[in-house]
TrEMBL record:
Biological-process GO terms, alphabetical: regulation of DNA-templated transcription
InterPro entries, alphabetized: Sig_transdc_resp-reg_C-effctor, TrmB-like, WH-like_DNA-bd_sf
Pfam families: HTH_23 (PF13384)
Highest taxon of the lineage: Bacteria
Species name: Streptomyces eurocidicus (Streptoverticillium eurocidicus)
PANTHER family, alphabetized: HTH-TYPE TRANSCRIPTIONAL REGULATOR TRMBL2 (PTHR34293:SF1)
Name of the protein in question: Biotin operon repressor
SUPFAM superfamilies membership: C-terminal effector domain of the bipartite response regulators
Length: 325
C-alpha cells in the first residue's frame, strides 16, 4: 500500500508518537489529509501519514492497524528466520549430545561415590589388598576412624606404605599402638601438626577422599581414577611428607623437640589467623582443653593481656618462622 523505505530498518525502536504528532494526526484524520510542511517525524517514521499516488503535495492518514501491521511484519519475518536458525543449531547439536552422553557413561568410573561406613571400609580394605607397589595414607585427628586399615598384610607382600598422621596421634594410646605396628611391619610413619583431610592413594592409580555427610548423617567417600587428579593428590601427599617428622621404630612415644615446636607453631599460627580454641582443636586433632592450656602458656610467655594482643605479639615475635612480622 505504501513504502516505508528510508525511514530506518527498525522504526519501532525509535519511540512512539510525540504530543505534536498526536495532534497533527488527529487533524489529518478529521480533514482527510494534511500539508507536508512541518510534519512531525514520528508520523512519517511510524507510517501513520503517507503520500497518496494522485497528489504528491499532501499526506493522508493511515489506519493505526494498517500502519502497525506494516511495521510489525518485517520484525516477525526476522524473528521467524532466527527461529529457523535456532532449530537448525539444535538439530546440529543432536549428535554432539549423543556422543557426550555415551562418553560420560563409558568414563563414569573416573569418580565413584561410596556411601556408608561399612561399604567404605570394605572398599578400602579391598583396594589395599590389591595394592602392588606403593600405598600412601593420611589420617587427620588424634583418633582413628572406625574403618581405618588394620590388616597389615600388604606390608608383608612388599608394598611400600607411607602413613601420615597428625602430631596428636603420638599422645593417643590406641593410635600410637597402631603407629608402632605399622613401623614394626616395615611401613614409614610421619606426623605433622596439621594435615589435609583423610586420603588413601593406591599405586598412584586410584585415590580415596572423604565426601560430605548426607542429610541422614551417613558418611560418604569418593573413589577417583582420573590420572591427573590422582597424580595431583599424590603430589600433595609428597609435599606434606617432606615437612613431617618421622616416628622412629624404637621410640614411637618420643616427644621430640621438633614435634613439640611444630605443635606450638601450629597453635600460634591458627590463633593469629583468628580461629577459636574449638576450631584450633578440631584442626589439630586435640582437645579444646589442651588448646586452652597452650594459649595460656603463650600468653604468659609473651606477657599478653588479651587474645587480640596475643595474636599481635605472636606475629611480631618471629615465632611463626615464616619471615613475616
Amino acid at each position: 500500500m505504501h513504502d516505508h523505505a528510508g525511514h530506518g530498518a527498525d522504526p519501532g525502536t525509535a519511540g512512539g508518537l510525540c504530543a505534536e504528532g498526536l495532534t497533527r494526526y488527529r487533524r489529518a484524520v478529521v480533514k482527510g489529509c494534511t500539508p507536508k510542511e512541518d510534519v512531525p517525524d514520528c508520523l512519517l517514521r511510524l507510517g501513520l501519514l503517507v503520500t497518496p499516488p494522485d497528489d504528491p503535495d499532501v499526506l493522508v492518514p493511515v489506519a493505526p492497524d494498517v500502519a502497525l501491521a506494516e511495521l510489525v511484519r518485517p520484525i516477525e519475518e526476522r524473528l521467524e528466520r532466527q527461529r529457523g536458525d535456532v532449530r537448525a543449531l539444535t538439530d546440529s547439536f543432536s549428535p554432539v549430545h549423543a556422543i557426550y552422553t555415551v562418553a560420560k557413561r563409558e568414563h563414569q568410573g573416573w569418580a565413584t561415590e561410596i556411601h556408608g561406613e561399612r561399604v567404605i571400609g570394605s572398599t578400602l580394605a579391598h583396594a589395599v589388598r590389591s595394592c602392588r607397589d606403593e600405598l600412601m595414607t593420611v589420617q587427620p585427628g588424634g583418633r582413628r576412624l572406625a574403618y581405618d586399615l588394620d590388616d597389615l598384610g600388604h606390608l608383608r607382600a612388599g608394598v611400600h606404605h607411607r602413613a601420615l598422621f597428625q602430631h596428636a596421634a603420638r599422645s593417643h594410646s590406641a593410635t600410637l599402638r597402631h603407629l608402632g605396628e605399622l613401623v614394626s611391619a616395615g611401613g614409614e610413619v610421619r606426623t605433622l601438626g596439621h594435615v589435609i583431610d583423610r586420603l588413601v592413594v593406591v599405586d598412584r592409580a586410584v585415590a580415596y577422599i572423604p565426601g560430605a555427610a548426607g542429610d541422614d548423617g551417613r558418611t560418604s567417600a569418593l573413589e577417583i581414577r582420573h590420572p591427573d587428579l590422582v597424580a595431583f593428590l599424590a603430589q600433595v601427599f609428597d609435599d606434606a611428607w617432606e615437612r613431617a617428622a618421622p616416628v622412629l621404630p624404637d621410640a614411637p612415644r618420643a616427644d621430640v623437640a621438633d614435634v613439640a615446636d611444630d605443635l606450638r607453631r601450629a597453635t600460634a599460627r591458627l590463633l593469629v589467623a583468628g580461629h577459636t580454641d574449638e576450631a584450633i582443636a578440631r584442626r589439630l586433632g586435640i582437645s579444646r582443653r589442651t588448646v586452652a592450656g597452650r594459649v595460656a602458656r603463650l600468653s604468659a610467655e609473651l606477657g599478653s593481656g588479651s587474645r587480640a594482643q596475643l595474636g599481635y605479639l605472636i606475629a611480631m615475635s618471629g615465632m611463626l618462622g615464616d619471615g613475616r612480622a
